[in-house]
Amino acid sequence: MWKVSGVLPDYPETKRHLQKEFTAAIKKETRKDPVISMIHFRESYEGDSFRFTTEDGFSQKGTYEEISTKFEITKDEVVKRGPEAYFSRVQKIAEEWVGLQSRLLFQKMDEVTEITGNIVDAKSKPLSPELILAALDKVAISFDEFGNAILPALVVHPDKLEGMKKEFQKYESDPLFTVKYKLKYKLIIDKKRQEWLDRESDRKLVD
Amino acid sequence: MIERAIENWLTSTNERGYEIPFCQYLISEGYTILGISFHGQVEQGKDIIALNKNGTPCAFQLKSGNINQRVWNNIKSEIDDLLEMPIKHPKVDKQSKRECFLVTNGIINDKLKKDIVDRNVGLRKRKLPDLKIYDGPELLSKFIRVNGTFLPTKPPDLKVFLELLMSDGHELPDKRLLSRFLESVLFTKRETEPQLRRKIASSILLNQYVMEPYESQKNHIALIEGWVILYSLVLGVVEKFQLAERNWAQSLKIVLDKINYQLSALKEEFFSRTDYLEGTWDGALFYKSRLTTVIGWLAAFELCMKSTDANYTIDRRVYDSVKKFYGSETWFWGESATPLFIMMSKLAIAFGDTFLSNKIICDLIIDIVFKNGLQEESALPAPYYSVKQIINHFYGPTDEKMDLSSFSGESYHLAVLVDILVRRNRRDLLNEVWKGLTNIYNSEFMPKPSWAILRWQCDEGESMGFPFKKPQSWKELQKDAWDMNNLDLPKSLANPFCYYFLVCYPHRLNRHTGKLLDSLLNKKVLATKLQ
């Protein structure tokens, strides 16, 4: 018996097109995630390392990390459904991808905030308006052309969300606290507006 | 197989097509090339003049196709000139003994060969040189002897080779693919000096081969880009292996001559045309991209010539074309067009037109600031994207569309353009756009080691990003823009070829190469500052 190994006719060009569509579909799905959609991605075209400096002068060097996810399709399913079998996995792949990217993002944020000291320690207490205000006070806030604050996103684990809502309802039922909270919030925003105006007025050439 | 491929190329090309590989063959045999017909230094039946390794002047006339009695009758007067007229060149004594060659890539028939031998007897009596001949089979064996070992044999290299040959010659070459192919010949493991020398020779032959589709269409810009890529990669080899000049200088000289010849042919074509349309479905962005590319290259040519020879008179017609077409008929399609516009700006300044020169730079800055702001939907693509990719985005199939918003918020060339205005001391102009300009994040790539900048793509190197400071000190900007001590570039780039390099490799335009470009006339400074 001769052992024959070879290929049967294929359609590489059409498949390259499908691969592009598949990648684009995953990308579109991941961008639906509220955290991922806020991130501005930059493409690196060459090299094996990076060095970035932020607006406030913080500089970080590093190398790229690979993130990957796996999916499986049985031969039977491939035979029966063809490309549809691949596209049916898009949502699941995107979910895993979002998880991986988010983990990496928060890990990096932890590293950076550790270095910059931009941390509000909750000391194991539940998230409260006071803690949110303390956090707001720590970050730089920008304003739109109408003078409205562009507030940073608050990322909360889904498991904690319900508990947090209940906790906040308690505060809302206390009129004195609401007034105090709103007042403090306004003062912080006023301060942040001034800081932003100062920053904006620094967008200039000086001697 | 590769021998058959070379044979196929050699028999199908014309004399212009094998002229450079033949010169390279002569260099490999110890000849010193004194002149090549395409740069107009040679005449009277002589396409190439050279000194052989004993210092004897030699003249070569190149022909294509079979030579029989009928062809011989047609070329006889040129052969007579070759034999009877002395070589006119400052390095050749007119009275000295010389050798004359008739070269063809076809067959010289046996009867004619016998006639030539008989004729040589008469020539000797008249104290004229013999006519020596190289025909196709001899030429083929010479080329294979010089190049054979390093020609591509591995299937992936051959696949790329064939892919390059499949071009119909009308479009621009796939520079990434061409670089990959030439790198597979040039950049392998550590080699000895003679091996590297032969690799350079092989790469010249192979480049001529893959340029054949463009050569047959007289696609000047494609040819210019193809040869600029080869020149850059050879410089990369020279830097990487610290190769002594004797191994490469002559080869690069003929390559540069070829580039300059194609540029002068492009200029001739451009100024002889009444319109710049090509084929059907033309106009609009096709037309503007073509004019931008041609005028940018012609400006680079004039600047390179002037930078090489201070006595060169810059062709005013090119400057007039910049004035005539800039704005209305040009298109800043993305950052891969920046170097073309910088060349136009530099040419304008060479004619004292600071208004136009600064306007071009300011327009680029304004375009980048307005189009590449964060979350802009129609941002200008990074310099890694060719004009072809961008044209395909607008007119091509749906899967060629790009997500232009992904380029928003950053620029590879903004800081380079700012530096240009800083060196021109135009704080007043920068003041007008500074606020918007600080919204853009500056990106830059620095290859490691520094010579790798001469490659199309680098696996090693650092991607960098930085914003301008708030507030930004003008003095600090000036210090950075003029400081030649921090240039991290190979020494071999500090020559007029840099104009061509940056037009061909727009992704290599950064603050370092931008500085180099503005300092090319100050060679003394460069020589001391570059490693």
Structure description:
The complex is a heterodimer of chains A (207) and B (531). Chain A has 207 residues and is mainly α. Chain A has 2 domains: 12-116, no CATH class; 129-201, no CATH class. In chain A, 56% of the residues lie in helices and 8% in strands. Chain A has helices at residues 12-30, 34-38, 75-81, 83-87, 90-116, 129-138, 158-172, 175-201, and strands spanning 49-53, 59-63, 142-143, 149-150, 205-206. In chain A, α1 crosses α5 (90-116) and α6 (129-138) packs parallel to α8 (175-201). Chain B has 531 residues and is of the alpha/beta class. Chain B folds into 3 domains: 1-148, Trna Endonuclease, Chain: A, domain 1, CATH 3.40.1350; 152-272; 282-529, no CATH class. Chain B has helices spanning 2-12, 15-28, 69-84, 110-125, 136-147, 155-165, 175-186, 193-210, 212-217, 220-241, 249-272, 284-308, 316-325, 338-350, 354-371, 387-395, 414-423, 427-437, 474-482, 497-504, 511-518, 523-529; strands spanning 32-36, 48-51, 57-63, 99-104, 131-134, 410-411, 441-447, 461-466, 472-473. In chain B, strands 1-2-3-4-5 form a 5-stranded mixed beta sheet, with helices on both faces. Chain B has a 3-stranded mixed beta sheet with strand order 6-7-8, with no helix packed on it. In chain B, α7 packs parallel to α10 (220-241), α12 (284-308) packs across α14 and α17 packs antiparallel against α18 (427-437). The A-B interface holds A 17, 20-21, 40-55, 57, 199-200, 202-207 and B 374-375, 382, 384, 399, 406, 408-410, 427, 430-431, 434-435, 438, 443, 445, 447-448, 457-467, 469-475, 477, 507.
Descriptive terms for the model:
heterodimer, A: 207 residues, mainly alpha, 2 domains, two-stranded antiparallel ribbon, 56% helix, B: 531 residues, alpha/beta, Trna Endonuclease, Chain: A, domain 1, 3 domains, five-stranded mixed β-sheet, three-stranded mixed β-sheet, 9 strands
